[in-house]
Each structure stands twice: as C-alpha cells, then as structure tokens.
Write a structure and sequence with these properties.
With about 450 residues, the chain is α/β, with parallel strands linked by helices. The termini are far apart. α14 packs antiparallel against α15. Strands 8-5-3-2-1-11 form a 6-stranded parallel sheet, with helices on both faces. It has helices spanning about 1-40, 55-70, 85-100, 115-125, 150-165, 170-190, 195-205, 210-215, 225-230, 260-270, 270-290, 295-315, 320-335, 345-355, 370-395, and strands at about 40-50, 75-80, 105, 115, 125-130, 135, 205-210, 220, 235-240, 240-245, 250-255, 410, 415-425, 425-435, 440-450, 450-455. The chain folds into 3 domains: about 35-145 and about 165-260, 2-enoyl-CoA Hydratase, Chain A, domain 1 (Alpha-Beta Complex); about 270-395, no CATH class; about 400-455, Nucleic acid-binding proteins (OB fold (Dihydrolipoamide Acetyltransferase, E2P)), CATH 2.40.50.
Length: about 450
C-alpha cells in the first residue's frame, strides 16, 4: 500500500515537472521571435494628433520605453497639436531628453502644426523636422485657474506690454520668464535658434516650415518619412551619453499603436466628455436619492463623478466656472421647491450656461457650444422631472406601518357596542367604536393604540 502511494506521488511529481518544462519551453519559443525582432534595425513611429494631455504623455513615455526594448535605431514622433497642458508637456520633454534612443519629432502631414506645447517638444527633440506646409510657434503659456478678465483691461495690459516689452501682471511675468528660460535651455542644448524661441514665448510669433529652416529653428524639411530618414542619416545629435551619429538610411518604420489604457485616458480627459460625466454624476446621484433602491443610477453617477473629478484634476479648469455650474443647478432646484415666478429658475439657467462656457481656461479646450445648449435644455427638463418625483414621494401616503392603517376599511365580525372584533386586511383586530356596530357592517379606522383600533361607522351616501 505504501509502495503504491509513493509510486503515485512519484508519477504526479514527474507530470508536474514535465508540465512546467513544457510551459517553459513554450514560453521560450514564443519569446524567440520577439528577441529576434529586437535585433532588426528599424525606427518606431508614435502618432500624436490633438491636444497634449495626460493620455498623450502616457502614450509617448510608454512608446519610448517600448522602442528601447525593441532595439529601435530612432524614434519618430509625428506631431500635429494645437498645444496642451504644461505638466504633460514637461513629462514628455523629460522622457525625450532622458531617452537613450534619438528622437526625431516630425510635424506632419501638410497642414499640421506644432503650436504652443508642440513648439517646446520640437525644440527638445534630438532632430526637429517639419513637412513643407506646416507651422510652429505661439508658445506663450496660458495661466490656469483664473477668473474671466475684463476685455478693456486686457487691451490696456497689451498696450503696456508692447511698450515695456514685459507682461504687466506679476504672475504673468513669472510664468513668461519661466517659459522663456525653459525653451531657451532646450534650444541651447541642441544648438538651435534660442532668440526666436524666446520671441515665440514672449510675443506668440509663428513660423512656416521654410522660414523655420532658414533661421535654424528646425533641422529638416521633409516631404515624407522616407525623405526624413534619408536627410537625418549621418547627422550628429547630442545625447545624455554624448554625441551620436545617426544611421537612418533604409530603416523599416514600425508604428506603435495606442493601448486601451491610453485610449480610455484620452476619452476621459476630453473636456466635453469630462463635462458630460460631471453632469451625469450629479443627476445620477440625485435620481438615486429620489428613487432609493434602484442602485444603477447611484452607481453610474458615482463612477461618472469620480472620473470627472480625475479629469478636472489634470485639465485647466476655471473653478469659477465650476462654481457657477453648481450654483445654477442649486437655483433650478430652488425654483422647484420655492416657486419665485421663474426668477430662481431663469437665474439658474444663466449661471449654468456662463459656468459651462468659462469652465476651461485654455481656448483650445473649450466646451463645445452645441453641447452646452443641449445639456442646459436637458438639465432643466431633467431637474424638473427629478424634483417632481421628490414632491410626489412627499405627498404620497404611507404604505406600511401603523400610519398606513389609518383610513383603511374593515368589516365587523359580530354585533358589538363599545368594543368588538373586525376583519381588516384578512386579520382579526380588536376595535372600539362609540356607536353600535352590526355584524357585516363596514367601519373605517381612525386611530391605532397598540393592538387595538379605534373605528367609526362608514356614512352611507345619500
């Protein structure tokens, strides 16, 4: 018996060892093609189209790491952006400067631009290239989180700024000076035109591709990727490890697609989506409060609100605008509870619209006007519906407990005067009545004291 047990354990051990060995062998076989691919000379391509934000930053940083694992000779960032968030831009630039692989930023296709944050990224790259019909510049940073300013004061400030060649506001001076020093350092690192870089920050000037090449702002004007790699071949670039000569002729270009995580981040941090999420969150929670026990509106609302709060954390949100949106919702709720002949409701709609318009500080990240109009109308109707549900629940009679028995109709089991028993909802109850009650007569419950009911005879209609 013991021998059989030992033999069984021995066979099980062999089976497990064989299984592990087979798994290891299969893993090595599956990994072999990727190891072989890593030895093939090539270039990786990262596509950036749209505003620079957390999603793009995550995509580029992961793309640079993956390119290093693949053993790419160079990384090409094909760029078309109106600008974006400062902290996301700086994360990208840090990743480019620290990359052991040369990074070529290529503003393309024709008609693309590298405005604002895109200009900084172009200056930070080891090789700066553009397609013929493209432009860069307008790199003046936008202050985040401020209240809307007076147009008249803005004109006076511009006049003073043109005379003094310096921003009139102290905070703006700090931001402009910091950005100027930052882009100048990037230009000096790669030997590009630092004077124009500072001018792009201080005066928001822009250049076409040909003009940029003529004054040494960029290195290459290329019609396509093949032309780009051909012109980049043999160039010397400055890396952290020292000067490196590029060998890019006839490289195979391999695109690196965005992962599902990057796509999700891109959707959530879109200003229009974030705006809809915060409204969905508020209304979902309100509907759950008006209809307890449904769970779905409350769960969906909570998730939406948390996603919106995450998006607002990384977007240039004007908190005055967010406060106006909340005030508008509260005023519309107040109109339902305290009718003011439309004053509260109309004021709430105005506050909601203004808050939605100024919610984002960056002009490139403004909420779409059709979305604002549609959500304002839908919000007003939905709030009226939700508040109506609240009022209906408040007016609805109690359906359970002792209070629910008041007003119910019962039937006398026997004749009685003073105290007797009645049938009520299929149960026998002790009842008291000041009048004489006949068997089978209908009575109405007027009060309840413990297990005893007080009833009165139903009056017959004449």
């Amino acid at each position: 018996m013991r021998y059989r047990i030992e033999e069984h354990l021995y066979r099980c051990s062999l089976f497990i060892i064989s299984l592990l060995a087979s798994g290891l062998l299969l893993t090595l076989l599956l990994a072999w093609p990727s190891c072989t691919a890593a030895q093939v000379r090539g270039a990786t391509l990262l596509e950036v189209k749209g505003a620079i934000g957390p999603a793009i930053s995550d995509y580029l940083q992961n793309g640079l790491k993956k390119s290093e694992k693949l053993g790419a000779a160079v990384v090409i960032i094909r760029l078309d952006t109106p600008g974006g968030l400062d902290h996301s831009m700086r994360d990208i630039i840090r990743a480019i400067l620290a990359s052991p692989i040369p990074v070529i930023t290529y503003v393309a296709p024709d008609g693309a631009r590298a405005a604002s944050a895109g200009t900084y990224i172009l200056y930070a790259s080891h090789v700066a290239a553009m397609a013929p019909a493209t432009n860069l510049g307008a790199a003046t940073p936008v202050r985040v989180g401020g209240a809307p300013s007076d147009p008249g004061k803005n004109e006076e400030k511009k006049d003073r700024q043109q005379k003094d060649d310096m921003p009139a506001d102290a905070m703006e001076r700090k931001i402009i000076n910091d950005a100027s020093a930052y882009i100048k350092a990037l230009a000096d690192r790669h030997g590009r035109n630092s004077d124009w870089a500072v001018k792009a920050v201080r005066e928001s000037v822009s250049l076409s591709a040909g003009e940029a090449l003529a004054i040494d702002v960029i290195d290459i004007v290329a019609t396509d990727l093949a032309d780009l790699l051909s012109q980049a071949d043999g160039r010397e670039v400055r890396m952290d490890s020292g000067v490196k000569r590029l060998d890019t002729r006839d490289l195979t270009v391999t695109p690196i697609e965005q992962t599902w995580r990057t796509k999700l981040l891109s959707v959530v941090t879109d200003p229009n989506i974030a705006y809809l999420l915060v409204l969905l969150g508020i209304f979902g929670l309100m509907y759950e409060l008006g209809n307890p026990g449904l769970f779905l509106p409350g769960v969906a609302g909570s998730i939406s609100l948390l996603l919106a709060l995450y998006a607002f954390q990384v977007l240039p949100v004007n908190y005055s605008g967010l406060a106006l949106i909340l005030l508008g919702i509260l005023l519309m709720i107040g109109e339902a509870f305290m009718p003011s002949f439309g004053i509260l409701g109309f004021g709430g709609i105005i506050a909601f619209v203004i808050g939605s318009i100024i919610l984002m500080d960056d002009e490139e990240l403004r909420i779409s006007l059709p979305i604002i109009v549609a959500t304002t109308a839908a919000s007003a109707m939905l709030l009226i519906f939700i508040i109506g549900r609240f009022l209906m629940l408040r007016k609805k009679s109690v359906g359970t407990g002792a209070e629910a028995m008041i007003g119910m109709t019962g039937e006398a089991i026997d004749d009685f005067t003073g105290e007797g028993r009645i049938w009520l909802s299929g149960e026998s109850w002790l009842a008291q009545c000041k009048d004489k009650v006949i068997k089978g007569e209908k009575v109405k419950v007027t009060a309840k004291d413990g297990l005893s009911l007080t009833v009165e005879k139903l009056k017959e209609d004449m």
